[in-house]
Amino acid sequence: MRELLLDLKALLGPYAAEVRLLASIVGVVALALIVRWLANRLLRRVFAGVAGRATALDEQRRITTVSKVLRHSASVLIVLVAAMVVLNQLGISIAPILGAAGVAGIAIGFGAQSLVKDFFAGVFLLVENQIRVGDVVEIAGKAGVVEELSLRRTKLRSYDGNVHYISNGLITTVTNMSTGFSFAVIEIGVAYREDVDRVFDVMRATAAELRDAADFGPKILGDLEIAGVEQWADSAVMIRARIKTQALEQWSVRREYLRRLKAAFDREGISIPFPHRTLVHEGAGSGEDAGAARGAAATPAAAPARRETPSAAPAGSTDADPTARLP
Asked: Are strands 237-246 and 277-281 parallel, antiparallel or unpaired?
């Protein structure tokens, strides 16, 4: 064994300086990897403990977002320091490089103003707590769930699965649908002949039923708020209401409420308008004319002229709404 080591030393003797240089470079890279792993682990544990003590979901999301950005920044800093040490080991002076980097940085800064703008915008997004990972937002004309947030860009995934990468410098307006609470806004239409107060009672009873449900009760924060009659549409009276919900639960609550409200309207006999037509035969006033009209109606080829007018009553109903025959 000793003879083998002596032979290896004699073989590497002429390359001793290169071997020491290679060993030092490998040592620097290994040390950088270890420090990077320790820094990421330490930051992850610290922020996990802070997030565990946070009571609000919004605060937990903010802590998670800041944790990811700091871990990424720490990794970049460690890599840069390790690269400078390796260059120094290779005998390349760092001072001229840093000086040149300063001059080049000024030149690049003028040509890469959008990149600098992205970083500053990312800093303010984090500091002002405008966006967090897991939020549903609309930014730069795109909407979706925030999957990643860095100092330079934001990654969104829309409902249909598409991924949008948006530079932070392009974000001028942020619509965050996940902050604090939300409202499930409901707009329904009922026939003109229906009693609006009775419709309100059915809507409130359905909302109370939904709030008592075990699966939807925890998602709802308040009773149904009926704004009232929103407008008189062509064939329906439009009613607007809303339900206060937990953040991100407004869509599921709204869908379930509409499902239950449809069943309640069917049970109470409240009509929901839908498009249909009423045919009026002209010239059928006298008995002779009426008989001629009936005979003509029996022959498809000789059908009389007819006029179509809209009506709000369901097809097949004899109780047509007179207000639907407005010009």
From this structure: unpaired
Cα gap 117→126, rounded to integer Å:
14
- Give Dmax over CA atoms of the chain in angstroms: 132
| 164: β partners | 156
- Token pair, residue 120, equals 């500053």
Are the beta carbons of 48 and 1 closer than 8 angstroms?
no
Q: Specify the pLDDT at position 326.
A: 35
Rounded Cα–Cα distance for residues 193 and 236 (Å) = 9
Helix, strand, coil distribution of the chain in percent, nearest 5: 55, 20, 25
Residue type, 14: P
Count of all residues that appear for the chain in the document: 327
For 311, counting Cβ atoms within 10 Å of its Cβ (0-12 exposed, 13-18 middle, 19+ buried), the class is: buried
- The whole-number average pLDDT for the span 34-39 is 88
Structure confidence by residue, pLDDT tens digits, 185-216? 999 999 999 999 999 999 999 999 999 999 99
Rounded average pLDDT over 296-302: 41
Instruction: Return the residue matching tokens 């206060």.
Output: 244
pTM given for the model: 0.57
- What are the tokens at 69? 């950005």
What does pLDDT average to over the chain?
78
Q: Which residues of 293-303 are buried (b: 16+ CB within 10 A; e: fewer)?
A: beebeeeeeee
The pLDDT assigned to 127 comes to 78
Name which of 127, 118, 228, 205 is nearest 167 in CA terms: 118
Closest CA to 42 of 83, 76, 75, 79: 75
State the sign of the Cα–Cα–Cα–Cα dihedral 157, 161, 166, 170: negative
Give the CA distances from residue 97 to residues 32, 86, 89, 102, 104, in Å, rounded to whole numbers and listed in that order.
21, 13, 14, 9, 10
Nearest-angstrom CA–CA distance, 95 and 326? 86
Average pLDDT over residues 256-281: 87
